[in-house]
Design brief:
heterodimer, A: 114 residues, mainly beta, 4-stranded antiparallel beta sheet, globular, B: 116 residues, 6-stranded mixed beta sheet, 11 strands
């Protein structure tokens, strides 16, 4: 398996623009997580899905952030409108709850909002 | 409040030396504790996993220990190599399955630099 695939790897945009980050989880994993990582706060959970259904979105900063999972192999995280304080690395991770529950992370999408 | 604190924040050592990274947590009860390695520009990758009943777990030159009484874990790296330069993140998974939550508690990591 190719692992968790994220795109784009890097995104530079101007304040006010819409940003869409994409994620393809590992096939067969029924949990998908979106995290944001900054130097100051480390990894923060934004939202997670189980079987394509959002379970907990309490980590989403505000209404400018939204996430969808239309099917088991694809998820998006959208920021509209973007602000400079959204600059961070956004990670997608997938997991199977049974067993070790290990998280498998993608390589991340580095977002810079000017 | 569930928290995971790591020390030191950063560490520089010479190649071939050993080092120990610390993790203190207040998460209770917990299912398991993990150490992840994150190379610059990459996603975190799992190194070790320990349940609350385990005291030690090794993965090559990496050895993790767990003291559930003092709520401390450590990651010991033996004979460090340049490729060990990375951030090391301690993660505690709470025993929350009955409440339906599934939130890993992450430390902010220790940045290790190994010099030749």
């Amino acid at each position: 398996d190719a692992g968790v695939i994220q795109s784009p790897r890097h995104e530079v945009t101007e304040m006010g623009q819409e940003v869409t980050l994409r994620c393809k989880p590992i096939s067969g994993h029924d949990y998908l997580f979106w995290y944001r990582q900054t130097m100051m706060r480390g990894l923060e959970l934004l939202i997670y899905f189980n079987n394509n259904v959002p379970i907990d979105d309490s980590g989403m900063p505000e209404d400018r952030f939204s996430a969808k999972m239309p099917n088991a192999s694809f998820s998006t995280l959208k920021i509209q409108p973007s602000e400079p304080r959204d600059s961070a690395v956004y990670f997608c991770a997938s997991s199977i709850i049974e067993g070790t529950g290990e998280l498998f992370f993608g390589e991340g999408s580095r977002l810079t909002v000017l | 409040k569930n928290q995971v604190e790591q020390s030191p924040q950063s560490l520089i050592i010479l190649e071939g030396k050993n080092c120990t990274l610390q993790c203190n947590y207040t998460v209770s009860p917990f299912s398991n504790l993990r150490w992840y390695k994150q190379d610059t520009g990459r996603g975190p990758v799992s190194l070790t996993i320990m349940t609350f009943s385990e005291n030690t777990k090794s993965n090559g030159r990496y050895t993790a220990t767990l003291d559930a009484d003092t709520k401390q874990s450590s990651l010991h790296i033996t004979a460090s190599q340049l490729s060990d330069s990375a951030s090391y993140i301690c993660v505690v998974i709470p025993l929350h399955f009955t409440s339906g939550t599934y939130k890993y508690i992450f430390g902010t990591g220790t940045r290790l630099k190994v010099l030749a």
